[in-house]
Amino acid sequence: MRALFFGTPAIAVPALSALAEIADVRAVICQPDRPAGRGLTLSPPAVKVRALELGLHVEQPLKVRTPEFAELIRSFQADVALVIAYGRILPPAVLEAPTHGCINLHASLLPKYRGAAPITWAIVRGESETGISVMKMDEGMDTGPVFITTAIPIGAETTAEELGTELGLLAATLVGRDLPRIVRGELTAIPQDSAAMTLAPILDKEHGRIDFTAPARVVHDHVRGMTPWPGAFTLASGKTLKILESRVGPASDSTITAPPGTVVRATKQGIDIACGEGTLRVLRAQLEGRKALGAAELVGGRALHEGQLLGA
After folding, report:
1. What are φ and ψ of residue 195, in 5° steps?
2. What is the CATH code of the structural domain delimited by 205-300?
3. CATH number of the domain at 2-196, out of 3.40.50.170, 3.30.420.140, 3.40.50.300, 3.40.720.10?
4. Phi, psi angle pair for 106, to nearest 5°
5. pTM of the model
6. Which of 57, 59, 156, 232 is the most buried (most CB within 10 A)?
């Protein structure tokens, strides 16, 4: 099986490794190197690093909607292209170039959470399960017919980063199990029910802002979903405070009447913040200009203290 691989971040790396075991990977296509770190040094995406380790040819086009790129893809004479978290919508000329088209591994149970950030939004919206959908790509945003979906539970404390790792490993399993069957014509793609569609829009930094007027469970899901990026944040004495790890506070806190955002307890075990219902227990946070600290260090250094109002 002659294959192409489109992908960019770490979640796509296990699928690339799995594809290399069962196919002749003619090329790996990922996004260009980006500036990273304090020095803004150009850094390769995770997929490029793994592709070079495997000795595979890598392409990093600046644009995918050009005749030249479509001709390049056709020149590889691929039977199929596998796509996971590439980060760009492919034009018809590219989608049609492989004999069996482009197969996408999308990190949600389609038609739910179509879009750029399905892992984050599934957690933020309190879903108890998600999964991988193996889909035949068309011109839309995750609108193509689906061959198969495989679900996994979302743990009550699982962050988006942790769930991404789980889904990346699941995607790799499905590459070996399902991609050969698709190419052999043994699986049929079923159109999605667009009436059941939900969206997972691209994230920006403002999405991380915490609303303490929401119930504690909702705030905790927000913290989990926004970890590691863009990060859940609020203000503490005028400075940005990123909440890195949290839990829902004790059930007894359901009777607390302090204004949302008020620190009602500050101990070494955790810092409890009043929400619209119940409390959020902060276990680890980072104040602007400082390193990340656990609850004991935050309390000991008076970064957070009882009676303090956050978010104002």
Report:
1. -65, -25
2. 3.10.25.10
3. 3.40.50.170
4. -100, 135
5. 0.95
6. 232
